[in-house]
Amino acid sequence: MDRSQLLFLSAAAVATLIAAVTDLWKFKVYNALTYPALAAGLAASAWAGGWSGLATSGLGALAGFSALVVFFAMGGVGAGDVKLLTALGAWLGPAMTLQVVLASALAAGAYALALAALDGGLAGAAVDVLHLSHRLRRGEIVPAGGPSIREEAARPDRRRRLVPFAAMTCLGFFLTLARLGPGLDDYSTPFRPRPAVATTPAPAAGVASTFGERAQP
């Protein structure tokens, strides 16, 4: 991992750590974090990688936005969660962003099952999973007419009812880094294109001619 890649990953790590703290504390991800993080990611990618870097950064932001916007429309996550993943995508590029989305979704699912088990036991958790699967088939993340994320976050028992998705995104980010390990170099951040495949140079004409003459009987 070179110094520039470390800088981009460090910027993403700082943003997601701050979001995790505010999400666990107040169940909010602030625009004062996500908007500057998005703008800085796009600007840094353009400065370091030119138009190609800016395009890759934009695709990463689009990947992060697209991964959650449907769930936001259904009431399953908050706007701050969508903005955070959009900003992270600008720093990470589309390939690694999708890896983070998958890891975050798995972490959030495990957290939700743990909450359900604590609230109603294992049998209650199984019933909740069945209800959730039926709602997903109907295109619903929360029951029709149910409370919004903002209303749920205002409840005094919100820690037993809500999944802090920004914190799960933070966990998913670091789980992705740990899983990739040395393979991080295969996931190029927006500033750096994938290394070109090395080719063997053709032999000089003089060398080939001499070899051909020696090979003759």
Structural commentary:
The chain has helices at 3-26, 31-73, 79-137, 149-153, 165-180, 205-215. It has 217 residues and is mainly α. The protein has one domain (3-193). 33% of the residues are buried. The model is unreliable at 123-132, 143-149, 151-159, 193-199 and 205-217 (pLDDT under 50).
Quickly list its features.
73% helix, single chain, 0% strand, disordered C terminus, 217 residues, mainly alpha
Count of DSSP strands: 0
- From the spread of the alpha carbons, the general shape counts as globular
The radius of gyration over CA amounts to 24 Å
The largest sheet is: none
Q: What separation lies between the terminal Cα atoms? A: 53 Å
Low-confidence stretches: 123-132, 143-149, 151-159, 193-199, 205-217
Structural class: mainly alpha
User: What is the mean predicted local confidence, pLDDT?
Assistant: 76
Helix content: over 70%
Strand content: under 5%
| Integer tally of domains | 1
Q: DSSP helix count?
A: 6
Element pattern in H and E: HHHHHH
Topology:
Layout: H1 3-26, H2 31-73, H3 79-137, H4 149-153, H5 165-180, H6 205-215
Structure summarized in a few sentences:
The protein has 217 residues and is an all-alpha fold. 73% of the residues lie in helices and 0% in strands. Helix 1 crosses helix 3 (79-137) and helix 2 (31-73) runs parallel beside helix 3.
